Amino acid sequence: NPNDDVKVQPGLLKVTANIVFGYATCVDAKAYEVNREDVANGIFINFLKQRVCENEKVTIMLDRVAEDMGRCAIARGRQALELRSNLSERRSLTDQIQATDRSASSSARNLQWAVAHVLPESCFLQFDCGVKVQLGFAAEFSNVMVIYTRILQKPREVVSCSAQLTGFPADVDVDLKQSNQETLLEAGSLLLIKEELLCPDVPSLYTRIHSLQRLRRELTFTVCLHYTYANMDEEVEEKQPVTVGKPLVSKLNLYEPRTPRTCSASSFTSVSSSFVEEFPSVSPASNTWPYYVQSSNIDSLTSSRSANVPEECDSPDLYDAPPSPVSSKSWPHGQMNDANYRFSDMSNFNSY
């Protein structure tokens, strides 16, 4: 090894005092999993998911998870959470992120991130037979969405009814065998929790849609209502078309080819400014997101980028050039926290 003679001169060690380890089990103990419909993880993860979003210090939150595990008959006496921490401040997983990088490129990425996680608003459909149906939406990833239908009210003469989804565009992927299922697990969703959806006690049908990054137009589908009257044996069907705009990452139009160009610090500034000039606000109620890459400046952001392959540009120009002052037109991080974005129920913001 050519580095064998090199003497490492470590500097002063810095104590961060912000490390927390939560182990699913302890020494000489075992870790168990439950093979049940409503539990798709190990026992530790199952209880952790129920408390991970609590506005409490991380160590306190994990202590409560340990108490929950202690009350579980399966884990009691067999598995116990082990906690190690040097946390010196009250840190919670719900704390707002305070970014130190206020550059224009950071503002542009923050805006793209926020836009890629905006869900359609829940809506209601009224059918001629008097049945009222609710459509709800939940994000599993930035390119995977679950749509659920619920019967909110029906006339007395209607003895049975169900609202099923069909007619999705060919751009997205929908497994017909797993669509319109009575549970999230049967629909292929292992991450979402039913209790975190709106009105979890109302029976629902779930349909999972993925590959939203390939969606070229607004997402349209058909709601088919199947119902039966008390004095009739034959089933009746009503249909209503629904358009929910471009949900989640489909707003970014990642299917569009990008022309490779050289990145520069000035191009990031112009891009961030154009975001705020053309789109001053983003809200969940917006159904469409205009394709902002029409500007010649935006192409410089995507150096060596091909369609559907997000890539971060690390051009040397960004490091050689002195940092320019942040324009007042860039998207500040404080406004990002104030905006009313609706993100995934499980805070899973990754795409695959």
UniProtKB/TrEMBL annotation:
Pfam families: MALT1_Ig. InterPro entries: Caspase-like_dom_sf (IPR029030), Caspase-related_regulators (IPR052039), MALT1_Ig (IPR041077), MALT1_IG-like_dom_sf (IPR033540). Residues 303-333 are annotated as: Disordered. Residues 116-256 form the MALT1 immunoglobulin-like domain. This is Mucosa associated lymphoid tissue lymphoma translocation gene 1a. It comes from Nothobranchius pienaari. The lineage of its organism: Eukaryota, Metazoa, Chordata, Craniata, Vertebrata.
